[in-house]
Amino acid sequence: MRHLFRTDYRQDIALWRHNGDRFWYGLLVLSVLVAPAVLGEFYIGELGAVFIFAIAGVGLMLLVGYTGLISLGHAAFLGIGAYTNAVLLAQGVPFLVTLPVAGLFTALCGAAIGRPTLRMSGLYLAIATLAFGSIVGTVFQKWTAVTGGFDGFAVPAPYVFGISIDGATGIYYVSLAVLVLVLFVAANLLRSPTGRALVAIRDSEVSAQSMGIHLARYKTLAFAISAGMTGLAGALFAHYVRYLAPDAFDVLLSVQFVTIVFVGGLGSLRGAVLGAMFVRLLPQFIAVVRDDLPFGIGRLPGLEPSLFGLTLVLVILFQPGGLNGMWLKTKQWFQAFPFKRQASFRRQKTYARSERLR
Amino acid sequence: MSLFQARDLSVRFGGIRAVDAVSFDVHQGEVFSIIGPNGAGKTTIFNLISRIYNATSGKLFFEGKEFTRTPAWQIAGLGIARTFQNIELFPNATLLQNLLIGRHCHSRAVFIAELGFLPSVRKAELRHREKVEDVIAFLGLERYRDSLIANLPYGVRKVVELGRALCIEPKLLLLDEPSSGLNVEETEGMGFWIDDIKKDLGITVIMVEHDMSLVNQVSDRVMALNYGKVLAMGTPQAVQSHPEVVKAYLGAEVDA
User: CA B48, CA B42: separation in Å to the nearest integer?
Assistant: First the structure.
């Protein structure tokens, strides 16, 4: 078991806690960098999609896991990012410009939805964002002059420094770079005053306010950052699907994003990545085992959404820490071996209920 | 001149006058206690001062400046910190993070710089950490530094909340029932801390409290309320023997 001997305040705000972290994450980055040389085109495409969903997952994690605001409209932000990127590319704007512009524009849209929903929380916010999602979906369908409506929109091939990155490998590397950037920015934010303000809002609005935190400003900011990251994911998603259709950005996709956050584990960036892996790889897994399932279960319609729903319920009931929690417990088990006790992971219950002011 | 003044402060919730034309001054460097039976309007006064409620009428002054209409989030910046009766900490964050949130009103970080965690942000974080460590040392919270609040016992949380308020480096500290839920020894300890806060840190304290032994131990002056009205004001002994106060707590004497 590793014991950290801390002698400097800087150790507590470092991104890496010790050299073991640096080594293993370095190894992870190295292996995903060489993966295209080893794996086939299909797997690289799927892995790229995992990265794209992880980017959106990190965005939603900041909103749901750290600020405590729910959104069922993130598919709309993905769509806004995707269409912004595709439309600008079709105008001849280079990809290195359209990608950040898609992110920034989506962040503005996020602020625009965050502002009027400031006083909402929980179920009401879920419904408001759901409504926002379906409004944006309708705009994608009806504004045919820009989006092409149901005819779809062929996404032009992106070029970086004159090199086409239209193939699975190109998108894979760009998505990886954006994911690393987004994780870096999110981790920085969380160790800064802004990140702490978000956590404060999540845990107690009334005392956050008396600590001098401007609730409206930080909630709007959380929506903007979350939407911006999802917009970046959307821009990359456009190149992953290559052909934009309005019905790709429906509420089921939003539910998938929420699944990423809950199954991954609330309040953890690692959880967002693990959740994205789960959400992207479960359908592939179903496709593989579909024909071997007994009693014709594999041919049942709606198998995939119901499995998503079932996992979501089971995780919330039995594993509130999600995949990240399972990871931490496994690590703990090995570190403490053979001293793991039944009580080590028992959930703490507190009975001092605090009376909220509203 | 007094540090804090309330003039004819009133708030009405529907037909109920929760606070009714209350005026009081708090002088620099004193501990001012507000006592009264349940529902007398003590916590309501705190919520008015921290601007969670809007006063129906009346005025609030701090250091000679009116702040009756200042938004709630700017109160900490003025130098007024508070604790809550039922503990409003951030339970899913560590003690250290909780105290660092108390430093929020002193943070001048630029958002863009935070995204990259630039050297300016890093330096500010280290400065805040030093201040927080001062408070941790003052209250003896070293061993809980990295614990989640949700895993701490109630008595410790009460102290953490006091610490978080001190991290604001306030000039005026509002303590809402600092002894509620504490046992006799813990209450006594709280009394010593309040004394230290007054004498060593020079912070003025307004305290709502039910525990009369704590009130007697630390207060310079006491104000007794009932049904939102001031019954008596003065030294702890004078207020406690005031006939109106005795009547409010024990009920009116039956005329023979």
Answer: 10
Question: Which residues, including other chains, have CB under 8 Å from residue A145's CB and lie 6 or more apart?
Answer: none
Same domain flag for B156 and B196: no
A211/B130 CB distance under 8 A: no
Residue A150 belongs to a domain:
yes
User: Whole domain around residue B221: which residue ranges?
Assistant: 1-79+170-256
Residue with tokens 């193939």: A167
Of the pLDDT bands very low, low, confident and very high (cuts 50, 70, 90), residue B255 is low
Cα four-point dihedral sign A34, A35, A41, A47 = negative
How many independent structural domains does chain A possess? 1
Which residue matches tokens 């938004």? Answer: B71
Considering B141, B168, B195, which residue would you say is the last residue of a domain?
B168
Predicted local distance difference test score (pLDDT) of residue A121: 80
Q: Is A323 on the interface with B (CB under 8 A)?
A: no
Residue B150 located in a structural domain: yes
Q: Are residues B176 and B141 in the same domain?
A: no
In a domain, B12, yes or no: yes
For residue B207, count CB atoms less than 10 angstroms from its CB and return exposed for 0-12, middle for 13-18, buried for 19 or more. buried
Q: Per the domain annotation, does A7 fall within a domain?
A: no
B184 and B233 both lie in a single domain: yes
Residue B122: partners with Cβ closer than 8 Å, 6 or more residues away: A10, A13
Domains of chain B: total: 2
Instruction: Taking each helix axis as running N to C, give the angle between helix A269-289 and helix A303-318, from 0 to 180 degrees, rounded to the nearest 10.
Output: 140
**pLDDT tens readout for residues B79-95:** 999 999 888 999 889 99
Residues of A with CB below 8 A from B97's CB?
A: 196, 199
Tell me if B204 is assigned to some domain.
yes
Is B192 within 8 Å of chain A by CB?
no
Interface of A with B in 129-188 (CB under 8 A): 185, 188
Q: Which of residues 190-209 of A touch B (CB under 8 A)?
A: 191-197, 199-200, 202-204, 206-209
Residue A164 pLDDT class (50, 70, 90 cuts): confident
pLDDT digits 0-9 by tens, A117-132: 888 888 899 999 999 9
Report the candidate in A253, A215, A251, A194 with the shortest Cα–Cα distance to residue A62: A194
- Domain presence at residue B85: no
- Burial of A7 per CB tally in 10 Å (0-12, 13-18, 19+): exposed
pLDDT per position as a tens digit, A170-200: 999 999 999 999 999 999 999 999 999 999 9
- Residues 6 or more apart whose Cβ sits within 8 Å of residue A323: A263, A264, A265, A271, A274, A275, A278
Cβ <8 Å between A210 and B107: no
Scanning B116-155 for CB atoms below 8 A from A yields 116-117, 121-122, 125-126, 129-130, 133, 150-151, 154
- How many helices and strands, by DSSP H and E, does chain B display? 10, 10
Containing domain of residue A238, as a range?
Answer: 36-262
**Which residues on chain A are in Cβ contact (under 8 Å) with B100?**
193, 196
Of A241, A225, A222, A249, whose CA–CA distance to A75 is shortest?
A249
